[in-house]
Specification:
This protein is mainly α and about 325 residues long. It has one domain (about 30-170, about 185-320). Helix 2 runs antiparallel to helix 10 and helix 5 packs antiparallel against helix 6. The protein has 16 helices and no strands. The relative contact order is 0.13. The chain has helices spanning about 1-20, 30-60, 65-70, 75-85, 95-105, 110-120, 125-135, 140-165, 175-180, 190-225, 225-230, 235-250, 255-260, 270-280, 285-295, 295-315. The chain starts with a helix and ends with a helix.
Length: about 325
């Protein structure tokens, strides 16, 4: 599988060179597909690297005892804490998947992991600052994004706590009992080496799904007309759904999506742009493929439905404020 993906990447990188050949004619849309695909990868890979390093640290240095000491026993307080920690944690929706996988594998309740998963890419300090700058140094949209996103994540995580009792990790993604206990008895240098080894394994494991998701997102961006989507948004409710669909397909990094969202200020109402800014970091195409590689399909589908419904309801309620 990695060999096939590597060959695919090399092919896409070589497209511009191939196009210079007079003896070879390729579809005119292929260079655009190549450019979008590579831009998504280049944008996401640094955050995935950070994510797998943190995941490696959790794997080696964090034990079940640490988890029990940090996570409140009260379900509601655990969800609130996970959302607050996520809000203060600079992470991309791609890089946060391996972190959440390790946390849940180590014993963090699924609902707390979901709270962290949703708020980390959405309302961390870097995202809020970029939103503030994208909308002309105006705090209104940044505050709306932060408030609506936090409350939506809180509600989604609490619903997950009711619907699912197990951790929902795929069996082959689980962590053995010995791994849960950590390696406190080993020398520090050995533990660092093991952390890096785990990070490397995690990176290659997650990257193949990132590449697949990036390619599908690039394909849809190339061959599905954005204008045809925009024409569907004739009312406030329709435009909110259109912008959410756009956020899902574009699969933008949450640190940069505010600048794209701001470009629609003269096309759609504030609620629709808010839907774009809240929905995309919570769930997009490449992120969903990565989640499917880690969690059971039923859980990912339910999470997708919950995010879609809750975000749609909350952004439209925000217009009443």
């Amino acid at each position: 599988m990695p060999t096939v993906l590597l060959l695919g990447i090399l092919f896409l990188i070589s497209v511009p060179l191939l196009m210079k050949s007079t003896s070879l004619t390729l579809p005119s849309s292929l260079p655009q597909l190549n450019t979008i695909f590579l831009s998504i990868l280049i944008e996401a890979i640094p955050f995935v690297l950070i994510g797998v390093l943190i995941a490696g640290f959790i794997q080696i240095f964090i034990t079940e005892d640490h988890i029990r000491a940090w996570i409140p026993k009260n379900k509601f307080l655990a969800v609130v804490m996970s959302c607050v920690v996520g809000a203060a944690f600079p992470a991309c929706e791609c890089g946060i998947v391996p972190i959440v996988r390790r946390l849940i594998g180590k014993g963090v309740p699924l609902y707390a992991g979901v709270g962290f998963l949703l708020t980390g890419p959405l309302i961390n300090p870097i995202v809020i600052l970029s939103t503030y700058m994208a909308f002309g140094n105006d705090m209104e949209m940044a505050l709306l994004r932060m408030g609506v996103g936090f409350v939506a994540a809180l509600v989604i995580a609490l619903i997950i706590s009711i619907l699912f009792k197990s951790n929902q990790l795929k069996k082959d993604k689980g962590i053995s009992h010995s791994e849960r206990k950590g390696n406190k008895k080993q020398p520090f240098v050995t533990r660092i080496r093991e952390m890096l080894n785990h990070s490397i394994d995690e990176f290659f494991d997650m990257s193949k799904y990132l590449i697949a998701g990036a390619f599908v997102a690039a394909f849809l961006q190339t061959y599905v007309s954005t204008q045809s989507l925009l024409q569907l948004g004739n009312s406030q409710f329709q435009s909110a759904f259109v912008m959410m669909a756009l956020a899902f397909v574009l699969s933008l990094c949450s640190e940069a999506d505010a600048f794209i969202g701001a470009s629609f200020k003269n096309v759609f109402p504030t609620t629709s742009i808010l839907a774009f800014l809240v929905y995309g970091p919570m769930i997009d195409l490449k992120n969903m493929i990565m989640l499917l590689s880690v969690f059971k399909a039923k859980f990912v589908f339910v999470l997708f439905i919950l995010i879609t419904c809750i975000v749609f309801i909350f952004v439209n309620l925000s217009s009443l404020l």
